[in-house]
Amino acid sequence: MKVDTQMVNPAFQSIMQNPNQKVFLDANFFIPPDRSEVAKVKAYSFTDFKECWLIPLLSEFSGLVIHESVYDELVDDSVKRFADEQKSSNPPKLKIHYDTELNSMEDALRNTYMNKIAIHSLYNPAIDNAKDRGEVRSLSFMAVKQFLFFAANDSLPIRLIKDAVKLGTGLGDMQIVQMYELIYYLYKRDKYDKKALRTLYKYQYYLIYRDKRINPEWGSFIEQMDALYSET
């Protein structure tokens, strides 16, 4: 994944200014990363991932939500239990949106969006297969309800939103927020484990040679992000 520290992301800037806005999360924000196939490293344990990332994230942003299709992807017992705890807390730190919230006209429109989006993915609405299901169904629901912000660390939703006009996905009004931006935000809050956030950044974006060719190391990343967002 490429880290962009050259241009301001209006979506990230907006939620920095107002952390209460509704932001839909992709499943990879809950599932511990595992890059053991590309480097000699261990997968993150859920305990470590929860402590350095999920608890701070859900503490800082009160408008975090997921679509039911993303909730269905949280199959690990620890991950699902944590999501359920956040959903049931008082006040809730996580909300789930369901397709049953759509009326008949909205449901038909959702299917139109889904078919436009799915052709650029590995998801087939006719058989409702698992691959890319969460992203496609989340984005389709969001498009109908005119929700603006989707947060992900996956190339598919980033491409579907950023290249919406070119691909004809109908997602031209939507905006993407990426994990590295939120890592930066949590770091700058000076309330959480900065070493752990740095380690997470390096694991996700500066682990292998290909990463190091395209992304800044941690110190440069913070400096460049400061230059973009210090006035926010």
Task: For the structure shown, list the relevant keywords.
single chain, 232 residues, alpha/beta, five-stranded parallel sheet, 12 helices, globular
Written overview of the protein:
The chain is an alpha/beta fold and 232 residues long. 51% of the residues lie in helices and 8% in strands. It has 12 helices and 5 strands. The protein has helices at 10-17, 46-60, 68-71, 77-88, 104-118, 133-145, 155-162, 164-167, 179-188, 194-205, 209-214, 218-229, and strands at 23-25, 64-67, 95-97, 149-152, 175-178. A 5-stranded parallel beta sheet has the order 3-2-1-4-5. It is globular, with a radius of gyration of 17 Å. The two termini are 25 Å apart.
